[in-house]
Every structure is written in C-alpha cells, then in structure tokens.
Amino acid sequence: MFDWAQYLADWLVYDVLDLAQEQHLAEALHFFIYDTTKILILLFLVIFLMGVVNSYFPVEKVKNYLSRNKFYGLEYLMASFFGVVTPFCSCSSVPLFIGFVKGGIPLGVTFAFLITSPLVNEVAIGLFVGLFGLKTTIIYVISGVLLGTISGIILQKLKLEKYLTPWVKEVLANAQRDQDKFQAEKQSLKQRLPIIWTEVGTILKGIIPYVLIGIVIGGLMHGYIPQGFFENYMAKDNLFAVPIATLVAVPMYSNAAGILPVVQVLVTKGIPLGTAIAFMMGVVGLSLPEAMLLKKVMTLKLIAIFFGVVTLCIILSGYLFNIIL
Amino acid sequence: MTKQIKILGSGCAKCQSLTGVVKDVVSENNIDATVEKVEDMMEIMKFDVLSTPALVIDNVVTISGRIPSKDEVLALLN
After folding, report:
1. pLDDT digits (tens, 9 = 90+) for A73-130
2. How far is B28 from chain A (nearest CA, A)?
3. Which residues, other chains included, contact A108 with Cβ-Cβ below 8 Å and sequence gap of 6+?
4. B50–A59: do the CB atoms touch at under 8 Å?
C-alpha cells in the first residue's frame, strides 16, 4: 500500500540529495521521510473514522447506556471497549469520573473506562498500524481492552468506595441510575461532517509536532545505534526487564504520538516487543500529572492502589506479549 | 438582555483556546454578554458535564468536550 512512499524516500535521499546508501545520515533521512509520510496518512484515516464513530457515540451516551442497562458481568468489557471509541482529554478525567459515579456506574466499571481510553485510542491505533503492521496492532488493541477490563474487575473486588474523598462519597450516596435522558442529536452525517472535520484538524495539529519529534529521535537512533545493541541489556530471558521498563515508565508522561516512534526503533534494535509495549503503556496510561488530577476525587491510598493494580497488569501483559510474539 | 456565558474547564490548553474563541466572537460582533471562566471542580460538576471544555450560555450547556468554530459560537449566541 505504501510502496510509493518507499519510492519517494528512495528518490529524495539517493537521487535528489545524492547520498550513498550505507551512510548513517542517508539511512536516518530515508527512515524519516518514509515513516512520516506513511504515518501521517494512516493517522489521518484512523482519526477521521474514529471521529465519525465518536460523533454517534459521545461519552454522554456511553454513560447513560452503562448506567441504564444491566450487563451481568460484561459491563467491564463494555466500558473498556467504549474507552477505545470515546477519546477524552486527560484534563476531563475528573468530571468524567464524577459523572460516572453520579450515574450509579460501579467504580470498577468506571476504572475500566479510564484505563483503556488513553492506552487504546485513535492516535495509538493509527501509529501502531504505521509502525508495526496490522497483526501487532490487533493484538495490542485486544490486550489493551483486556487490561482495562481485568484491572476494572480487580479494582471493583477491592471495594474501594471508602477511599474516595468526602465530597465524592456524597455524590455516590445520591447516585441514581437512569437519571437524565440523553438528548440524541438527530443529525445526518452530512451535518456532522464539518464538526468531525474540525476535530480531525485539531487533533492532527496537536499531535503532529510530537510525531515529528518522535520520528526524528527514532530516525537518529535508527541510523546510529547498531543492530542488536540493546539485546545485551534487555534480552527476552532477562526476567527483570519488563518490570523495570514498566516502573521507569509510570512516572513519565507522553502521549502515544511521541512515544511510539521511539518504541518502534527500540524494537528493531533488539528490545523484545512485550518489554517495549509495557514501557509504552506505562508512559501513556499512568503518570504523575494524572495522579495529581485524581487527587481531587480520590485519597492517596486509592490512587496508590489504582496505580499498583494497573502497573501489575501492564507487567503481566508485557510478559504475555514476550511469550506469544 | 445581557447573555451570561460560562466556560467550564480545569485550565488546560483546550479550555484556554475555547475562552479565546468565545471572547473573540463576543468582541468582534459587539454582543452584549459577560464571559466567565469556571475552574472550580465543584462548580463545574453542577452542570453535569462529562468532558471539558464546556460552553454554557444562560445556564444551558451547549457544547462540551470540543472547541467549536467562531461561526458555531456566533450561531449559538444569536
């Protein structure tokens, strides 16, 4: 599908700039041109498609749906899945959390949504397809959804309601299912398109700098770090690699756009995919800034438990990836 | 009658840019309105919004979770 991008990069680097094939600079530049073209197109496509889906399933609708219906245990999986199709800005996590609690949605189900949403979203999927191909993407999406589901179930079992901050407990006490009926906007796709279109523009504008910086760093590493460089340090049989990579990643924050191009290069240089993905999930899914935001609704103890459970699940899925891939 | 515009948001970049858009629209079209930024979470929750930034006109939530275009804001204000 992207042969033409390959030719374009070949032509620009080897013919127009007249660089020799073995040069580090030429390799780095080729990687940059090819990857940028391919990734931006894929990102555009995935973000647009998700924009259409999201226009019909806004987060308000998801909340009412989860609040009104009984799913007999499947609600964790549903919430986790909805996390994929309804992106939300991390600064909305507090209103979102409160809104879910208010609607009588169990804490564990709310967590399932909150965990999956940053891990698997349109930006992550677009980049994953561009960098790792379709098969790895599908495995990643499935494991991301399962990770949210399982973490949600565990967190629910721990009965954490008592660790909410007092004012949230009050909200919880007054929670009621089936409160406000969602006013479905009856609009045709044609009427929705301009809004979706502006959203696609805003998202792309927001992430392009990160993608470019990520690809530049990736390109430099690609050209200058020798093949198999990391194998000595992070070989598959090194049992500590996954936990260490995850623990290092948790306090850090970057969005999927900045971290994935770097992860891809790490993988081509010999770091096992599971270890790299655990690192990426730690960076994208959990972070200190997020913990600070959540302090408004959760006590430190609850935040610690939440982070602990998710970290554990990330480490487990890192091992799992290393075994099956 | 003076319109009461409130912008709900915890102060992130998106909320700033929504405030910018709204203020521009109000001043460019000489609309009689007050623009207030609400950053307090308790206040925000009173409006039952799930995602910020949100635009509230005369106590009705009109937009939440995205940044509208100037034309859209103008249409909402008229």
Report:
1. 889 999 999 999 887 777 788 888 988 888 889 999 999 999 999 899 888 999 999 8
2. 21
3. A76, A152, A153, A154, A155, A156, A157
4. yes
CB B54 within 8 A of CB B65: yes
pLDDT tens per residue, range A288-314: 888 888 888 899 999 999 999 999 999
Q: What are the backbone dihedrals phi and psi of residue A223, each rounded to the nearest 5 degrees, phi first?
A: -80, -30
Helix (H) or strand (E) holding A48: helix A24-56
Catalytic residue among B12, B41, B45, B75: B12
Which residues of chain A lie closer than 8 angstroms to B41, CB-CB? 94-95, 98, 296
Distance in Å, alpha carbon of B45 to nearest chain A alpha carbon: 7
Q: Which residues contact A146 (CB under 8 A, 6 or more apart)?
A: A80, A317
CB contacts, 8 Å: A199 with chain B: 66
Which residues of B are less than 8 Å from A198 in CB distance? 67-69
Note if the bond before B53 is cis, omega within 30 degrees.
Answer: yes
What is the spatial distance between Cα B75 and Cα B78, in angstroms, rounded to a whole number?
Answer: 5
Q: What's the rounded Cα separation, in Å, for the pair B66 and B18? A: 8
Cα A7 to chain centroid, rounded? 31
Q: Could you report the per-residue pLDDT of A33-71, keeping only the tens digit for each?
A: 888 888 899 999 999 998 888 888 888 888 888 888 777
Rounded to the nearest angstrom, the minimum Cα separation between A90 and chain B is 9
> Taking the model in full, what pTM does it have?
0.85
- In terms of CATH architecture, what is B3-67? 3-Layer(aba) Sandwich (3.40)
- H-state helical runs in A134-272: 134-157, 166-173, 189-224, 241-249, 256-268
Q: Are A148 and A115 spatial neighbours (Cβ–Cβ below 8 Å)?
A: yes
Task: Choose the closest CB to B67 out of A58, A91, A202.
Answer: A202
Query: Is residue A139 a contact partner of residue A325, using CB atoms and an 8 Å limit?
Result: yes
